[in-house]
Amino acid sequence: MSHHIEGSRNSCALHGALQVFEAIEGTVPVIHSTSGCGLQHYLGGTRLSGGNDPFGSPPVSSTNIREKHVVFGGGSRLREQLKNSVKVVQGDLYAIVTGCSIEMVGDDVPAMAKEGLDQDWPVIYANTPGFRGDVHQGYQLAVRSLIEQLPDIWNESQTAPAGLVNIWGVIPNQDPFWRGNLQELARLLEGIGLVPNLLLGDDQNVNSWKQVPGAALNLVLSHWGELPARLLEERYGTPSILLEGLPVGAAAGALLTRVTEKLGLDPRRTDAVIGREESRLKRQYALLADTYYRTGFQREFALVGESAQVVGIGEFLGTSLGLLPRTLVITDNPPDSLQEALVTRLKSIVPEYGVDIVFSEDRAEIADAIRSGGAGIVLGSSLEQEAAVELGVPFLAVSFPLTHRIVLDRGYAGYRGATALLEDLGSVILAGSYTPSV
Amino acid sequence: MSPLRSKAPRSREKRLDTLGAWLGPVSVASDEFAAREVFQRIRTFAQSSHDDLLYALRILTGIKESVTIIHGPRGCAAAGLYHAAAGSNTRWVVTNLDERDTIMGADRKLRKAVTALHHRYQPKVAFIVGNPVVAINNDDIQSVVEELHEELDLLIVPIYVTGFSSQNAVSGYDTALHALLKYLSGNNPAAEKNAAVNLLSVAEHPLDRKEAHDLLEGLGLELNVLPDNSTVDSFKEAPAARASIPLCPDAPEYLGTILQEKYGVPFIDAPRPVGIEGTGRWLKSIGAALDIPAAAGELHTRKAEETSRLLGDFSLKGTSVYISLSSANAFSLITLVEELGGVVAGVTVTHLDRLHVRYLNELAARYPSLQIHVSDGQEFEEISILRRLSPDLYLGDSTNIGQVARLGIPTVSLEALGIVGYSGVLRLAGRIKTAQANRSFGAALTSTNPPYRESWYSRSNNWHIKQEVK
Question: Which of A149, A181, A214 is the last residue of a domain?
Answer without folding.
Answer: A149
